[in-house]
Amino acid sequence: MAFHLLQRDRSGGVKLADALSQAMTEVGHCSECRTFTEHDVCNICSNPKRQESGQICVVESPADIAAVEATSILGSLLCFDGALVST
């Protein structure tokens, strides 16, 4: 990616660098589920409908939360565990 940006899209590289720099300083972890957010509590955890469901879906990473959310079929709270759970 770096070679492509240097050779063909330097302005895009600058925009990407700025966006990454901003994300590194402004994005933290949700105090409830530990996913990435710009707020103390993420949009999923602050949604009252999610809390009413009484269901929790535990996933390994914030990327998994995004994947589950993209399906739009689960109405439960999502919790980023950060480690695999074996049964």
From TrEMBL:
Family annotation (InterPro entries): DNA_Rcmb_RecR, Rcmb_RecR, Rcmb_RecR_Znf
Biological process terms in GO annotation: DNA recombination; DNA repair
Molecular function, one GO term: DNA binding
Gene3D superfamilies on file: 3.30.60.80
Top-level taxon of origin: Bacteria
Signal peptide feature range: none
Phylogenetic lineage: Bacteria, Pseudomonadati, Pseudomonadota, Gammaproteobacteria, Vibrionales
Domain RecR protein: 30-51
Protein name in the entry: Recombination protein recR
